[in-house]
């Protein structure tokens, strides 16, 4: 079989054309990649800003309440009394009654305030 003779020049030109096409495609894809990276960066920035804004709104809406224990002084006295009178806890009943009245008054106060 006889192969068609191709000169070296057309092969070289063909390779040059393919090389130019590849370089154009490479430039195109690099440009597309740069655009996608820029969009991604913008999206990240906007998303981060929106998240921060939403977090601040939620925090402002649901502020943490400071909790102060009610009747803490009486509670401490009762605990001390129980420790000192571990075998005779009824001797602490007067303190326990005071504590219960204090707690009930605090509950009533919270109900009246609407809290």
TrEMBL record:
Domain of life per record: Eukaryota
Cellular compartment(s): Mitochondrion inner membrane
Signal sequence annotation: none
UniProtKB keywords: Disulfide bond, Lipoprotein, Membrane, Mitochondrion, Mitochondrion inner membrane, Myristate
Alphabetical list of InterPro entries matching this protein: MIC19/MIC25, MICOS_subunit_Mic19
Entry annotated with the keyword Cell membrane: no
PROSITE patterns: CHCH (PS51808)
GO biological process: inner mitochondrial membrane organization
A GO CC annotation given for this chain: MICOS complex
Membrane association type: Lipid-anchor
Protein name, as recorded: Coiled-coil-helix-coiled-coil-helix domain containing 3
């Amino acid at each position: 079989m006889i192969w068609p003779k191709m000169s070296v020049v057309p092969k070289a030109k063909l390779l040059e054309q393919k090389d130019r096409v590849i370089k154009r495609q490479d430039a195109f894809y690099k440009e597309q990649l740069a655009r996608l990276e820029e969009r991604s960066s913008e999206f990240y920035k906007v998303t981060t800003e929106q998240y921060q804004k939403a977090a601040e709104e939620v925090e402002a809406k649901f502020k943490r309440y400071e909790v102060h224990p009610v009747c803490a002084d009486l509670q401490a006295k009762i605990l001390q009394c129980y420790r000192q009178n571990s075998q005779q806890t009824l001797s602490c009943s007067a303190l326990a009654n005071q504590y219960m009245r204090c707690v009930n008054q605090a509950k009533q106060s919270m109900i009246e305030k609407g809290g």
